[in-house]
Amino acid sequence: MINIEEIYHEYLLNEGKKHKQKYEMFAGWFSASSAGSCHRKQWYKINNYEETTPDVRSSRVMRLGTLVHKDIEKALNFYSDKFGFKDAKIYAEHRVEIPEINVVGHLDIAVDADKIYVYDLKTAHSFKWKKIFGRNVDPKPSVNYQLQLGTYGLGMMNFLDRKEDEVELGLIWYKKDDSMMKVQTISDEWIDNAFFYWVELNEALEKGDVPEIGSYNTPIYNWECKYCPYHKIHCEGV
Fold it and tell me: I want to staple 128 with a disulfide (CB 3.0 to 4.6 A). Which of 19, 39, 124, 166 is the partner?
């Protein structure tokens, strides 16, 4: 009898390799999706260090997000073909390049209309959902998603030659438990915050030495080490 789970995992690992190939021409650049990450992790990434192979659970979680992303992109194309978007241009899975801060990435959705509306889709389980929209909101949440979205906003602002007050940011949340969706509006101040994060990172790594554990933004959050692909292989973490 064939092992379906094993076959599926090998398929997901192969899909992950194909995704990385999209960025081979940008060797030495930072990924927009890593905004807000530990400086040591970023150093390992741009220096092409070996990463831990994703386990079964991590691979499936990431794949679920990918499938939802693809469905939303198909929905936008479907709507555009059938009804059109009046006085607006849609960008889906659009590559954003910001050479001045050495960053590249693919945003989920951007709409060029009276403003530039930039959206990033995130899947979440019920616990995470309650921390964002419930009664007991997390008082000290991580801001990686906001910095990532701000990075995309900066890229589209430069790409379309628009001012910061002409950009509107939003996180589209998809709850995995019951497929509920909700948009969380994000302040445009995260465009500036993202820019300063990348400037500080570039300055911190320009010497070429790996950042010491415990130094500035290394790590930013203690829990980062648990999920870091370089933990245990190259870094003992905290």
Answer: 124
